[in-house]
Amino acid sequence: MANAGIVQDGAPVLIRAAHLFGLPTQAEEAREVTTSPMDAVGRVRQLHTFGKGSCPRC
């Protein structure tokens, strides 16, 4: 998952506080933050086949 851009529970980046963007100056950075998770989902779908109802935490 790390190769696909997915971080695991407990990763330091997940406990960092978020900051507000200074728009419009940081508009490009804000766009990247909103598109990169969906890009990662696409990479994971290419690497792993998820079976219907296979979520262990659901």
Question: How would you sum up this structure, described in words?
Answer:
By secondary structure, the protein is mainly alpha-helical. 36% of the residues lie in helices and 0% in strands. It is built from 1 helix and no strands. It has one helix at 27-47. The mean pLDDT is 83.
Count, helices? 1
Q: Give the low-confidence spans.
A: none
Portion in beta strands: under 5%
* Rg of Cα set: 15 Å
Shape, please?
extended
Tell me the major beta sheet. Answer: none
Helix content: 25-40%
| Structure class | mainly alpha
In whole angstroms, the N-to-C terminal distance is: 19 Å
- Overall residue-averaged pLDDT value: 83
What is the N-to-C succession of helices and strands?
H
Count every beta strand, where a strand is a DSSP E run of 2 or more residues.
0
